[in-house]
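Table 4 source record.
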Amino acid sequence: MAASEIGIEWVDDYHSWAWTDLMNCQVEAERFQNQLNGINSFNWGDDFAWDQDFEEQGASTWHPTGDDTTYADAVDIVFYAGHGESSGPKFGVSSHDSGKVKHSELRLGNSDLEWAIFDACYVIKEGGKYYDHCYDMFKGLHYTPKLHKKDGR
């Protein structure tokens, strides 16, 4: 079996947003990457972590050139650490795109990606009004915990 490819992105420095800076996102992302026995494909942080790395090409309303097939969806497992909200993860700069990813711009797993981990508040919320977004943003991923549709299936 071939070794899994691992990619990480993290943001501690939110200088271009009204978000407070974070501590330890780099440490947590690199600790995660180093614990796995795989190939480290990319490690983008702070000003080099861009939202377009997670966006499906053509899905973004702000910048239609998403690069998920080069980055987030080109590895077996991707890890993001930083700020998030119910509309998606937030990045430190907006000079390459909008600086945030909306659920409607994510189609993770329709290429190579099998696992996505978001170490960020509210990006994936089990239950509640944001529940249905998980089905659109994950197109082929394994996921834990198991989410159930509203009808219990």
